[in-house]
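Continuing the batch. This is chain 6 of the set; chains 1 through 5 are on the previous pages. Same settings as before, nothing changed between runs. Recording input and output for traceability.
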Amino acid sequence: MAVFTSVRTEEPVGYAETSTRMGELVRAIPGYLGHENAHTPGGLSITVGYFRDEQALQQWRTDLEHRQAQKRGRDEWYESYTLHVGTVERSHGFVRER
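Output for chain 6:
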């Protein structure tokens, strides 16, 4: 699992297109399980990506196009970000039926 929190710059030119492309790339990685996003009105964004194993996450981390997008993010799109990598030990959920 990778948890990416960020605050973007005021005018992230090209960000949306690159984000769409990164979604296409990551979905093609064997072992990618999905992701969730949340955004606050103040500009904080949190993305949690789920991967079957370290090998799948490593493939994403080292993808050349992803590395180029990371550099552009540091140069242009992010005021700040943090990345946390961990393992999910247990997971469960609840959905109210109406």
